[in-house]
Hints:
It is built from two helices and no strands.
Amino acid sequence: MNNPLINPGLGTPLWMLVSFGILAFILIKWGWPAILKSLHSREEAIERSLGEAAKAREEMRSLVAHNEELLHQAKLERDEILRQARITGEAIVEKARTTATAEADRIVESARENINYEKMKAMTELKNQIANLSIEIAEKLIRAELEDKQKANALISKELELMKLN
Length: 166
């Protein structure tokens, strides 16, 4: 049982110690600064990323607040536009109502004038017809009275006397 791996001699551990020392020296001299530099740059990159993330988070909060403000303003503008549209619509309806009322009044007044005109025309025609009938009746009566010569002469004399008195 003289296996060199199980029972190493004095030289193997010595050479292992020397090899480890050389390896440790090389790692400490060139490897360790590179590892530290890499870790340091990684730490700075992480800190920068965290700072940028915080800055981005703050910008997002600002944008959300700004968007909420814009949304609020848009809602206010929408409400104002709707209010103005409602007022304008009511004004248009009121103007149309006023115009329609004025037009109806004008039509009624025109109809009244036409009715009065037609009434006056009918009354004039009626008066003319009455006058014509009266003249016809008077003519017939006078003819009937004048058929008798004595009555005609008496009527003429009477009328002449009345004219002289007036």
